[in-house]
Design a protein that fits this description.
The chain is an alpha/beta fold and 314 residues long. Strand 6, helix 5 and strand 7 form a beta-alpha-beta unit. Bound molecules: ligand PBG. The site of ligand PBG has 10 residues, from loops.
Length: 314
């Protein structure tokens, strides 16, 4: 009866798998702070994409980790047509074609030696407008590599509009934009910094949002839609379900939520200690995000959770 009257259902197609691919490795490298998640080789990434597809997951969000010596102040590896992210997009596309939605992180932090999401001005501050020019270039190389959706995640003002123009200019009108609309400056990104080998020393408070603010997200939302966002995202998910619910209630575009690295690691760590039931806890977090209005959920558990769901365990 409870199953019959349940107000919220999870489906494998609600899930999107974020995946890391690292240049120059021959074996996958486990991420210590994210037990069960690895930095993929090009080869194991292709396998992970196929596995996700077979489990019914609808999309994959790719993050590239360049070799250390390729990082520089402008993050040029991010716009190199042969850079790791572009190579990975081509690999996955060759493997799964259009069956799985291929998304790419459009941000400089994986590629800069200072670890910021943008380029810096003479005073060492992130230069919003100079960064937009880099994002335009990034969007074009990612689109050329065959990506279906770009995810500008750097929280620069005007990024969606600039990326839309850049894509349209090269005839890539059909590449969609998943806008990181409300991206909070969160302590829960901690494990991700290891995942992408980030060089960041300071913080991102000058461009990511203050956890105290909700209305600011709604202003960001209005701007993103005006600039041409096809889908919008709230990130992190768990501590921001109120923001997610508000955003979902006020738009008619698809709304995504990103269950980030720290949300993943907390559950894994507690489960490892035997303090919570891992599978139940995972499905509860995903159900909560879905209930709050997250139509698409980016989660490192995507493939495994999709397999559970297909087996009728929820
Ligand atoms: C920026 C980006 C970050 C994450 C996704 N895209 C890091 C940050 O903003 O600090 C975090 C994802 C996670 O923690 O799982 N390229």
């Amino acid at each position: 009866m409870r199953r019959m009257v349940a107000e919220t259902r999870l489906h494998p197609a609600d899930l999107i798998l974020p995946a890391f691919v690292r240049e120059g490795i021959t074996e996958p490298v486990p991420i210590q702070a994210m037990p069960g998640v690895v930095q993929h080789t090009r080869d194991t990434l292709r396998k992970a994409a196929v596995e996700a597809l077979e489990a019914g997951v609808s999309g994959i969000m790719l993050f590239g980790v360049p070799e250390d010596e390729k990082k520089d102040a402008a993050g040029t590896a991010g716009t190199d047509p042969d850079g790791i992210l572009q190579v990975a997009i081509r690999d996955v596309k060759a493997e799964v074609g259009d069956e799985l939605v291929i998304m790419s992180d459009l941000c400089l932090d994986e590629f800069t030696d200072h670890g910021h999401c943008g380029v810096l001005d003479a005073d060492g501050r992130v230069d919003n407008d100079a960064t937009l020019e880099r994002y335009a270039e990034m969007a074009q190389v990612q689109a050329d590599a065959g990506v279906h959706v770009v995810g500008p995640s750097g929280m620069m003002d005007g990024q969606v509009g600039v990326v839309r123009d850049a894509l349209d200019t090269i005839g890539k009108e059909d590449v969609s934009i998943l806008a990181y609309t409300a991206k909070y400056s969160s302590a829960f990104y901690g494990p991700f910094r290891e995942a992408v080998g980030s060089s960041l020393k300071g913080d991102r408070k000058t461009y990511q949002q203050d956890p105290a603010n909700l209305h600011e997200s709604l202003r960001e939302l209005a701007l993103d839609l005006e600039e041409g966002a096809d889908m919008v995202m709230v990130k992190p998910a768990g501590p921001y379900l109120d923001v997610l619910a508000k955003v979902a209630a006020s738009v008619d575009v698809p709304v995504a939520a990103y269950q980030i690295s720290g949300e993943y690691s907390m559950v894994e760590a507690a489960a490892e200690k035997g303090w919570i039931d891992r599978e139940k806890a995972i499905l509860e977090t995903l159900t909560g995000i879905r209930r709050a209005g997250g139509q698409m959920i980016l989660t490192y558990w995507a493939t495994e959770a999709a397999q559970w769901l297909s087996a009728g365990r929820r």
